[in-house]
Design goal:
heterodimer; A: alpha/beta; 8-stranded parallel beta sheet; B: alpha/beta; 21 strands; 23% helix
């Protein structure tokens, strides 16, 4: 080894400076790739967060470092390299395209099928818009109505600044930092998300949706959602958007926490349609989500989800039925096509007396995809008269896909009544023949049958969403019938 | 405290010295002990062992290679036999074959002991073809393979209807303060043959017993095998039963498992359907209380088209007992037109009892009919009221309803004497006298 000279030292200092150079980069929109304490601090700083939040994030980061990626799920994928991801990139205000003509025609065709207006199409595909149109003014009108009733609905970053007492009290209370690998990661680096608080006894007059906020904040890679429904209140919350998002972010790790205090009710609906990768299985989003809700006395949480996108989905919206008479519901349709893999389901933890839960899960797999239902029903010794009903139906299209059911039932109370039922079948040739005979072509016939198969869940979605979701099912399965 | 794994590993050398080291099986054993050394005993971190811990079981300093031969008289064991039918009997005492109590045969078929088959040259071919071919290479099975020497060897040649059922009973006398033994059974049923087998493990003392048993069953074309396991040992005995079944075209296999006793029971039942038109039926009744733990871990692999499987397990759990049902059905790509049905029903009688159920379907073929159902519930209050209103005391009424609940399983039992036996055991368990046979 050569002698360490002053020149070397100089060089080293120079590189060092370069290393820390990203501090000056804070002004720009993207942080350098990789994850370390400084990046966590930088994200927090960018968001102008108070110190308690920064500490909270750092704590989560420490926990995350000691955790290992889970690999028990029935999915196979190349593990992402967490040091090769940029953990912060603010939504760029610059338009990606100048006119709709530049947008991928395939994407436009899908928009058309979904019946999305031209203006919305522009917004969704990132086309510059000349005039600020409808939806923003609609959003403002909404804000007024909400303010009147004392409902807080804003981005989580705003909430950290304006309502720190609420955020401090509830964030991480349902999904603790230590919960799992991705929850810890999210806690450390979450970029943005939504916060919603419904005061005592208030019925939220409209469906709250992140969809309307899309202009204001944009959805980040690591979303954090916190919904608190105070005693006796009601809220219906919509997440996601039925339009295909051509998001190039490989990894999405969101955390959603719902808190329903005594007598409150939260209805949470999701339509997820991230980029599933091409028909050869290249690319696509990894969607690793932790969603959980807590029900106090007489409270009710209802999860409804339509999952059609993402290359890999790993998602278990859960209910902790803590209070007496609490009710948890889970309605899900998961569609996989091509090389998609979904491992999704729910957890119903019965802690209180007379708690009830219902699970309806419909899995549809086509192409070479794998679709798994994984669910837990846990009845604790103190939960008297708990009641659960689960039904998991799978539909297979083609013989290269797989449908799997992994229910876990743990009962420790003699008064519990638990029922689980699962079936797997295919679309009957006689059903298709019947439709053909009446002049309905095969593709439409399949759509009709799928629609009937998923009816129970579609019915639970808010109206407009249901219509779009229905179309989405058709599109997702297009070309899967040979 | 001595570590059981270490003890077993060091005992292996002593064990090997007793056996012929030039044989084919010697290689298999050496391979298996290496496998066990690297994997060890399963713990709760393994998905398949999530609800069953062997910790308490492995804490004991077991005698692994018992020396003393104990002699039992027929009168000592009469009540554990189903003695009102004519049957072949293969009886082991403390892991050693007991010839004066047994009734084996070599006439037209082989119903004998494995140690004999392993040492005689006329069985060389069959051993090489079948021994340890379908048993898994997991820790617990490998351990048995390493120490495999004694057990039952049954070979039924072509077109043979075995008229008498075969009873296999393992007794432990309590000569050692705690004993571990590892019987190894091999059953080969050739084309178009039929056989009925009853298996039982019985401890005759209050000393601790840990049995790790492995059975390999080969069902050739058009064969019919009915297997019954009666697990009603005392509360100091624990059993890990690993059964592997390989089924060929048009064969039919049924397994009935009756679990009433033991401290801990773990049944690993793996069935592989390797050709078309196969029927598989597996059923079980579990009625336990106290601190008992029974775990049914079943796997049915549908590999070829046009096969059926039917699974039905019922359980009644009292006191601090724990029941586990982990039923897995795998339907592979080729297995079109499969019908697979699985049902698991449970009744909890106490708030300290636990049931953990994990009925799983893994399906890779589209033209199939697969369903499973799983319930946890109570006895019907209206039915109970009805019986009580007709003057039947609550205890008897409850027992009647439980009978009704479990009765479905008994329906498919083909030997009436087993039905009577099981009915009596259930009546005993429930503490009632019912003046009729089901």
């Amino acid at each position: 080894m050569s002698k360490y000279t002053e020149d070397d030292l100089k060089k080293e200092l120079e590189t060092k400076q370069y290393e820390y150079g990203f501090y000056t980069d804070i002004e720009s929109d993207t942080l350098p790739v990789g994850l370390n304490e400084e990046v966590v601090i930088a994200i927090s700083k960018k968001k102008e967060e108070p110190s308690w939040m920064t500490d909270w994030r750092l704590d989560a980061f420490k926990i995350w470092k000691q955790m290992k990626e889970p690999n028990w799920a029935n999915v196979k994928y190349k593990k992402p390299d967490f040091q090769k991801i940029s953990y912060y990139s603010a939504p760029s205000n610059k338009p990606k395209y100048n006119s709709l003509d530049e947008v991928d025609p395939e994407l436009l065709a899908t928009f058309k099928k979904l019946g999305i207006s031209v203006d919305e199409q522009k917004k969704l595909s990132g086309v510059a818009m000349d005039v600020v149109i409808d939806s923003v003014s609609v959003a403002t009108t909404f804000k007024d109505t909400l303010n009147e009733r004392g409902i807080i609905f804003c981005s989580i970053n705003e909430a950290i600044k304006t309502h720190p007492e609420l955020v401090k009290k509830y964030i991480g209370s349902i999904v603790p930092k230590t919960d799992n690998f991705y929850a810890a990661l999210n806690s450390a680096v979450f970029s943005d998300g939504s916060f919603c608080y419904i005061p005592k006894g208030v019925k939220c007059p409209m469906e709250l949706s992140t969809y309307f906020r899309i202009n204001e904040a944009g959805t980040g890679q690591f979303e954090r959602t916190l919904v608190v429904a105070d005693k006796g209140s009601f809220v219906s919350y919509l997440e996601g958007c039925s339009a295909p998002s051509r998001d190039e972010n490989q990894l999405h790790a969101a955390v959603v926490e719902l808190i329903a205090l005594d007598d409150a009710e939260i209805k949470y609906s999701t339509v997820q349609n991230w980029y599933p990768g091409d028909s050869k299985g290249n690319g696509g989003v990894y969607n690793f989500v932790t969603k959980r809700g807590l029900c106090e006395k007489n409270a009710k949480i209802s999860w409804t989800q339509v999952e059609t996108g993402s290359a890999v989905t790993w998602k278990y919206p859960s209910c902790i039925l803590k209070g007496d008479n609490a009710v948890g519901e889970f309605y899900s349709i998961a569609v996989t096509n091509n090389f998609q893999q979904a491992d999704t389901g729910t957890k119903m933890i019965h802690l209180g007396n007379n708690t009830k839960s219902t699970i309806i899960s419909k899995g549809i797999s086509a192409g070479k995809s794998q679709n798994s239902y994984r669910g837990l029903v846990h009845i604790s010794p103190r939960a008297n008269n708990a009641r659960n009903f689960s039904q998991c139906d799978s539909l297979l299209i083609g013989n290269k896909c797989g449908a799997h059911t992994f229910p876990y039932i743990e009962t420790k109370n003699k008064s519990a009544q638990v029922e689980h039922e699962a079936t797997t079948s295919k679309i009957g040739e006689d059903q298709i023949f019947y439709c053909n005979q009446r002049g309905i072509e095969t593709e439409k016939a399949i759509a009709l049958i799928i629609n009937g198969f998923s009816r129970e869940v579609l019915n639970k979605l808010p109206m407009e969403f249901a219509v779009e979701a229905q179309k989405l099912l058709e599109i997702s399965l297009e070309g899967s019938v040979g | 405290m001595i570590d059981l794994k270490e003890k077993l590993l060091s005992s292996f050398i002593a064990f090997e010295n007793q056996t012929n080291i030039d044989s084919y099986v010697h290689e298999v054993r050496s391979e298996a002990i290496k496998q066990f050394e690297s994997i060890g005993f399963p713990d709760k971190k393994l998905e398949n062992w999530k609800y069953t811990s062997l910790k308490n079981l492995l804490n004991t300093d077991y005698t692994v290679l018992p020396e003393i031969n104990n002699v039992l008289e027929f009168k000592n064991i009469k009540k554990y036999l189903i003695d009102d039918i004519d049957s072949y009997k293969v009886i082991f005492v403390d892991g050693k074959y007991c010839s004066h109590l047994s009734e084996t045969t070599h006439e037209g078929m082989d119903i004998c002991i494995l140690s004999a088959a392993l040492t005689q040259s006329k069985y060389e071919l069959i051993i090489e073809n079948y021994f340890n071919k379908i048993a898994l290479k997991d820790g617990i099975t490998s351990l048995n393979t390493a120490f495999s020497n004694e057990g039952v060897f049954i070979h039924i040649p072509k077109n043979k209807f075995v008229e008498k059922p075969i009873q296999i009973i393992h007794f432990s006398t309590g000569n050692e303060s705690s004993l571990m033994f590892q019987p190894r059974n091999m059953i080969v049923v050739d084309e178009n043959s039929q056989v009925q087998i009853i298996e039982r493990h019985q401890s005759l003392s209050k000393n601790k017993v840990f049995t790790n048993s492995v059975t390999e069953i080969y069902a050739d074309k058009k064969s019919i095998i009915d297997y019954y396991k009666i697990q009603n040992d005392n509360l100091q005995a624990s059993l890990i039963d690993n059964t592997y079944v390989n089924q060929q075209r048009n064969s039919s296999f049924s397994m009935h498992t009756f679990s009433f006793g033991n401290e801990l029971v773990r049944n690993n039942l793996n069935i592989s359907q390797n050709d078309e038109f196969i029927e598989t039926t597996i059923k079980g009744i579990t009625i336990i209380g106290d601190n008992q733990h029974v775990d049914h871990n079943t796997l049915i692999q549908h590999n070829k088209p046009n096969c059926n499987s039917h699974q039905d397990y019922k359980g009644i759990y009292d006191n601090k007992s724990t029941g586990v049902f982990n039923g897995q059905i795998v339907v592979n790509k080729q297995a079109q037109k499969t019908n697979a049905f699985q049902s698991n029903n449970n009744i909890l009688l106490s708030n300290k009892a636990t049931i953990n159920a994990k009925p799983q379907l893994e399906i890779y073929a589209d033209d199939v009919k697969c369903s499973h159902g799983c319930t946890v519930g109570q006895l019907d209050k209206n039915a109970l009221f009805y019986l009580k209103s007709r003057g039947i005391p609550e205890k008897e009424a409850t027992a009647l309803l439980m009978y009704g609940f479990a009765n479905n399983i008994l329906k498919s039992v083909k030997i009436p004497e087993i039905k009577t036996r099981i009915t009596n055991i259930i009546a005993n368990k429930l503490g009632v006298k019912i003046g009729f046979n089901l």
